[in-house]
Amino acid sequence: MFPNKVKQAWAEGRPVINGWLGIGNPFVAEIMAAAGFDSLTIDAQHGFLDYSDACAMLQAMRASGVTPLARVPWREPGAIMKLLDAGVQGIICPMVNTAEEAAEFASYCRYPPHGTRSFGPTRVNFATPNYYAQANDEVLVIAMIETQEAFDNLDAICATPGIDGVYIGPADLTLGLSNGALPPGQDREEPEMVAAIQRIQAAAAKAGIGAAIHTGGPDYAAKAIGWGFNMATIAADTTLLTSGSKAVVAEARQPTHRAGIDPLALLQRLLITGAAGALGNVARDHLAPLATELRLSDIEPVIDLRPHEQFVQADLGDAQAMRDLVQGCD
Asked: Is the pLDDT confidence value at 298 over 60?
């Protein structure tokens, strides 16, 4: 279990791809752990789970070798210490607003003389041989920057002994810095929010600690890593399940799938036949640019769609309808 692979990656200058677990189910955690993430964070703040769920999820993830982290509900010593005893290798704490709060949070994660953590590593002793001797050096302590107060105290928080990194929750940070004028959400593009996000990364880098951010997917994550972030959360189990389910249902409802006909093959057949007739000039004018866009043949479209009447429901004079027809194909 130790050494902490996230700490190792940060020390070597390698970015970490993090996943998010909000469903309190060990099988879901096991599936996510097998997907190739560097780390997975159990969300005990907003996730649909409790401590018993978290323990089973940690057991399910163990075989994969992924680094388990947890976001706690609050800066409360009992919750922090209990999750560490269960086996998480790092704690992400929400709403850390001052250097004093950061120091208090860090103390809960480490044994004396570096902190006030109570000794009782119930499960983690079995999962990690010689745990006590390594824990103070290997456990990650990450403070979330989410409010105007935290932003104003950013440099002091980053410089707090015992803090290993800061984590941006873009939704709360946006609400905090705009005083509710901007809606919550990830992947911020407003100039003032981009500037604030980059300011947090710069403060972390100056203090020699990690900078992490929650994103909506790989594209924004790549952008954040390009800005210098050391960790990007790219996906949550809830969003993957939601988007995947919606996508497969929407695809199944496409006329192309109901008819069992490959529209791309049909369009190719139309284009390479070269006849002229019933579709008329309007359809031809739309199909020729579409053929170019799809990098198919440059010859004029044929018109005889009568063998496929059950499939071609849309007006083929409508370029978007034809494009949708083609894009419904696997």
From this structure: no
